[in-house]
From TrEMBL:
The lineage of its organism: Bacteria, Bacillati, Actinomycetota, Actinomycetes, Streptosporangiales. Residues 1-108 form the FAD-binding PCMH-type domain. SUPFAM superfamilies: FAD-binding/transporter-associated domain-like (SSF56176). Pfam families: FAD_binding_4. It comes from Actinomadura meridiana. This is FAD-binding PCMH-type domain-containing protein. It comes from the Bacteria.
Length: 108
């Protein structure tokens, strides 16, 4: 059996990881539902799908996104500033807990 922990912030992620380590359980992370990892029985799956914050800084042409953010959210928040991601896939932003991405001026 796999235990699933839905998290909404970095403190939840840290607490879930501490709990799993204390119990000697393996840990895996699923950001937007496209995880390809196979979990061992007794493992803890940390689901970051509800961590979907996106902030756009038009001055620096950069964005910050949490692990559960979808590219659609990045595009929606960047477009009002005439910006767009350099590249994106149909589903989720890559599975980093937090990162910055550069935006470029939209040609549209």
């Amino acid at each position: 059996m796999v235990g699933v922990v839905g998290v909404v912030g970095e403190q939840d992620v840290a607490a879930a990881e501490r709990m799993a380590v204390a119990q000697g359980r393996a840990v895996s992370v699923m950001a937007t539902g496209h995880s390809s990892s196979v979990l061992a029985d007794g493992a803890v799956l940390i689901n970051t799908g509800r961590m979907n914050g996106v902030e756009v800084n038009p001055r620096t042409r950069s964005a910050w996104a949490e692990a559960g953010a979808r590219w659609r959210q990045v595009v929606e928040r960047a477009a009002p500033h005439g910006l767009a991601p350099l590249a994106c896939r149909p589903a989720g932003v890559p599975s980093f807990l937090w990162f910055r991405m550069m935006l470029m001026a939209s040609a549209l």
